[in-house]
Design brief:
Blueprint lengths: L13 E6 L1 H18 L6 E6 L3 H8 L7 E7 L13 E3 L9 E9 L3 H11 L5 E9 L12 E5 L5 E2 L15 E4 L9
Parallel strand pairs: 2-3, 2-5, 5-6, 6-7
Antiparallel strand pairs: 1-9, 3-4, 8-9
Length: 189
């Protein structure tokens, strides 16, 4: 397999490559087909969650064969202590969501707290439907149940970077998804 990973110099903090660009690309294509089939006859509002899902969202929409509208929203990082630092919306979805078919695009669902917060918030705006598509799903640490209509890959309990996912804002540009070396793993800020 051609490895695009060879194109970029690997930073020393990067451990094992978990998903090669070709694997991501192929799965994104499959998800695109699935979503296009399910949403035939509808014009969904696709909402990417910044910044992590920026790359995934922009690749995915190019595989969708249905008409769609594209928007993004941004939330503050979840600190792990919701009472101390609640999740905040930094950029919201604009416009009226009534009767819209909203499809949220996430990079990774871990505890599910971020997505739970977003889903509840968007649901209050009475969309006709609200579904979630996540590239990565890490079910082991789930605290709240979130129905995931579309899921790219299930991943294990290790901190991942690349293809939009960051460690302290670094490594989002990597074309692959890799684990961090153990000594460098720290919780997100
Ligand atoms: P949750 O609220 O615990 O589900 O966390 C979801 C958010 O945490 C994601 O949108 C990511 O921004 C971030 N996150 C969770 N796991 C990772 C990881 O392994 N690498 C990078 N970011 C992560
Ligand atoms: Mg995120």
């Amino acid at each position: 397999m051609t490895t695009l990973s060879a194109v970029k110099t690997l930073p020393p903090e990067i451990g094992r490559i978990v998903l090669e660009p070709e694997q991501i690309e192929s799965r994104v294509g499959e998800l695109g087909k699935e979503i296009s089939r399910d949403y035939r006859g509808r014009q969904p509002l696709v909402v990417g969650v910044l910044k992590g899902a920026a790359l995934f969202t922009s690749d995915l929409v190019r595989h969708l064969t249905i008409p769609l509208d594209l928007d993004f929203l941004a939330v503050s990082s979840y600190s792990g202590e919701p009472d101390i630092q609640p999740i905040q919306v930094l950029k919201d979805v604009g416009g009226d969501l009534t009767d819209r078919h909203v499809l949220i695009i996430e990079d990774i669902v871990d505890t599910g707290l971020t997505l739970h917060f977003l889903v509840e918030r968007l649901r209050a705006r009475k969309p006709a439907s609200l579904e979630v598509c996540t590239l990565l799903n890490r079910p082991d640490l789930r605290l709240v149940d979130i129905p995931l209509a579309y899921e790219g890959f299930e991943v294990a309990q290790e901190f991942l970077v690349g293809y939009g996912l960051d460690f302290r804002e670094h490594f989002r540009d990597l074309p692959f998804i890799a684990s961090m070396r153990r000594q460098d793993r720290e919780p997100a800020e």
